[in-house]
Each structure stands twice: as structure tokens, then as C-alpha cells.
């Protein structure tokens, strides 16, 4: 196989089923692929330049931003190897459940410039698991 050209790489990221969102150090969205458009209901034009608050439910924002600032100041995240499961919010206000991992983005000099998240909507699985737990009832000793 030949080396991936930048245009082929761009097409792969645009067409993959997982949402790819890239944000700068301040948490402003700088990239939003087609899967992100489908998942969250916002077009790339609506999302780019906006804060990640666009998809973070209000009650989770303080915790999100505390973690984000820590990652941006230390350059370290455990979610490059572990999946993070969180709720998110669609444009229509509907809550969805996500799993995602993070890649820290650095410039050619190694300076941290932001983060990229690779996101999968796991709402259907989460709802099936919740229904299964409800059907099985409380645990007995």
C-alpha cells in the first residue's frame, strides 16, 4: 500500500462513522466531520468556532472544563487509551450517550494546540442495558 496522501486521509476522516471533533486550547471547535453533523445535529458551519459547550449538557460543564484545563496545562490525558463515557446534547435538545477517546494535538514544535476526540454514539446500547437491568429487578442476596 502506498503512503496516505493528505487528501485521502481527509476523506477517510470525513467519511468514518465516528464523529471527529477537534478543539483548540481554549475549547473552541476547529474541526467537525460529517458524523459529528449527524450525531449532534449541527452543521460544521454552525459548530466551527463555537465552544464545546455546544454539546455538553449544562450540569456537566464545570467538571468538563476543569478537566480540559488540566489536560491543556499538563499535556497529559488518560483518555488516549481509555474510553470516556459521558452524556451529550444534540441540537434538538435530546440527550445522547457517548464513548470517546482523545488525541492531544501538537504543532511541529511539539507545542500542545488542542485536542481531537473520536466519538461513538452508544445511546441505543445504553438504553438496552438500562431496560435489561430494570427487567431483572433488584439484586438479591
Calculate Rg over CA atoms: 17 Å
CATH architecture: 2-Layer Sandwich
Low-pLDDT runs of 5+ residues are: none
CATH topology: Beta-Lactamase
User: What is the overall silhouette?
Assistant: globular
CATH superfamily annotation? PAS domain
Write the layout of secondary structure elements.
Elements: H1 6-15, E1 19-24, E2 29-32, H2 34-40, H3 44-47, H4 61-74, E3 84-89, E4 95-106, E5 112-121, H5 123-136
Antiparallel strand pairs: 1-2, 1-5, 3-4, 4-5
Q: What does this 3D model show about the protein?
A:
The protein has about 140 residues and is an alpha+beta fold. The chain has a single domain, classed as Beta-Lactamase, CATH 3.30.450.20. About 35% of the residues lie in helices and about 25% in strands. It is built from five helices and five strands. The radius of gyration is 17 Å and the shape is globular. The mean pLDDT is about 90.
Short description:
The chain has helices at residues 6-15, 34-40, 44-47, 61-74, 123-136, and strands at 19-24, 29-32, 84-89, 95-106, 112-121. The relative contact order is 0.15. It is an alpha+beta fold and 141 residues long.
